[in-house]
Amino acid sequence: MSGSQSPLLENATRDLAQFAAALRYEDIPRQAVECIKLSMLDSIGCCLFGATLPWTRKVAALAEGEGAQPVASLMGMGKKSSVSLAVLVNSTAGHAFELDDIHKESIVHPGSLAMPVAMAYAEAAGGASGRDVITAMIAGYEVGTRVGSAATMSLFLRGFHPQGTSGAFVAAATAGHMLKLDAGQMQHALGIVGSQAGGLMAAQEGAMVKRFHSGRAGQSGVYSAELARRGFTGITDVLEAPYGGYLSTYSDQPNPQRLTAGLGTVWETVNVGYKPHAAVTSIHTALDALADLMREHQLKAADITEVDAGLSHMTHVHCAWEYQAQGVTAAQMNLYYGLAVIALDGMAFVDQYREDRLRDPQILDFIKRVRAHVDPEIEGMGAAFRHAARVTVKTRDGRTLKREILHRRGSPENPLQPADVEYKFRNVARACLSQPHTDKVMKLVGSLETLDSTAELIGILAAPTAA
Fold first, then answer.
1. What residue spans define the domains of the chain?
2. Does the pLDDT of residue 398 top 90, yes or no?
3. CA–CA separation, 458 vs 467, rounded Å?
4. Does the pLDDT of residue 205 top 90, yes or no?
5. Per residue in 326-340, pLDDT tens?
6. Can you say how many angstroms the Cα of residue 211 is from the centroid of all Cα atoms in its chain?
7. 240-298 pLDDT, tens digit each
8. Are residues 113 and 140 in contact, defined by beta-carbon separation less than 8 angstroms?
9. End-to-end CA distance of the chain
10. In angstroms, how far apart are the furthest CA atoms of the chain?
11. What 3-state class would DSSP assign to 323?
12. What is the DSSP letter of 406?
């Protein structure tokens, strides 16, 4: 390790494992419980919509071909498989359309990992209680987001996908808690899953495999917990090992103190936010800044001659690359496409990322008017402001309009309200669930901590979607 790196903590893997294994519902503050219920609702919507998409269906066909013991449902498909294969499919579905929740610091989408794992195990057990599901999900959220935060943006800038790497720890801790692993077994589960972490960010420029990173991370978490339960051993210091450990391998500039800082008193679960756009989180401030300017000044796309977006270095690398209609994934990750659909449609949600829009001549024409650059002042604000944007619009009548947004909608600093998440759920679920079932899911998730069994909720989610 270079002298610029922080010294790695001793016993961090052990301490996280002890926390995840010992966590009880009674230990969790009410705010975190309410946040995880909101995350669960959001994640269910993401999984059900994702189940309708062709890339998820390909993974489901693979799972069906395995002919595994049918104990856990492929959400929205009316079919069952093993716990591990159901999680492979459902976690792919949860991350299938850039709609899933996000923990900003860790760059992990924990909901599309923790919810499928917890619900698969709940179903395999005949309908675990709502409190068991809540507690297991929070164990996963707390462990996995801390791992991602400790890896810092360095992991991402080196080209690794946080969902497939740090996200694997979300799944392992959730699975381990559902299996009631003791602290030693949980430590081995984390030690096993650290060796399974993977996912390359080049996938963002046009590949279905980005969605699969989430599925594999979820499945790896299940395998790791199951192996640990059987006495299989992992790297007991996987996070802190100075050679070949998770942080020392994946990050040039780790912050290992983030692994255990405030563990059990500071709840990272409450720092998870939700997406109002079906696009990569990093561009949401730029999208909203353009939408705000157009609404405020009553502009149409034809009125605009140029849009310039000032961004952090991370967002510029992540999203400001030449758009070439490489596929839905690429469109959702691309700043220029996102700004174009905001200008033309006033929104960047599900319909804006249909296959038939990707080569729309109007979108391609507007993209030619968009510029992006690294704003040194935003970059100087540090990692906490990596999603900030300064957007300048020039109009055909000679005006120059500017808007700065430092914190995206849906972030902890600028949160969506529960009603906003419920509105999003209804809009996503309407293609998948009947109105009565939509209402019932919302009611069951809203009272999750009171449910002695999650069987009724699982039954609704298991049925084939209306789409």
1. 12-276+423-462, 281-405
2. yes
3. 18
4. no
5. 899 999 999 999 999
6. 10
7. 999 999 999 999 999 999 999 999 999 999 999 999 999 999 999 999 999 999 999 99
8. yes
9. 52
10. 72
11. coil
12. S
Q: Over 60: is that where the pLDDT of 341 sits?
A: yes
Judge residue 122's burial from the number of C-beta atoms within 10 Å of its C-beta, 0-12 exposed, 13-18 middle, 19 or more buried: buried
Dist CA 196 CA 113 (whole Å):
15
Q: What fold, for 12-276+423-462?
A: 2-methylcitrate dehydratase PrpD (1.10.4100)
- H helices of 200-302, where? 209-229, 246-250, 284-296
Average model confidence (pLDDT) across the chain: 96
Q: Alpha helix locations (H) across 95-199?
A: 111-124, 130-157, 167-178, 183-193
On the CB side of 271, CA atoms within 13 Å amount to 16
Q: Which amino acid is at 57?
A: R
Task: Give the pairing type, strands 79-81 and 102-103.
Answer: unpaired
Hey, what amino acid is at 105? Answer: E
pLDDT, one tens digit per residue, over 142-168 is 999 999 999 999 999 999 999 999 999
pLDDT in tens, 102-138: 999 999 999 999 999 999 999 999 999 999 999 999 9
Of residues 275, 254, 246, the one with CA closest to residue 166: 246
How many CA within 13 A on the CB side of residue 323? 30
How far is C-alpha 187 from the geometric centre of its chain's CA atoms? Answer: 24
**Contact at 8 Å (CB) between 145 and 103?**
yes
List all residues 6 or more positions away from 398 whose beta carbon is below 8 Å from its beta carbon.
Answer: none
Please name the residue that has the structure tokens 């959400």.
Answer: 75
- CATH for the stretch 281-405: 3.30.1330.120
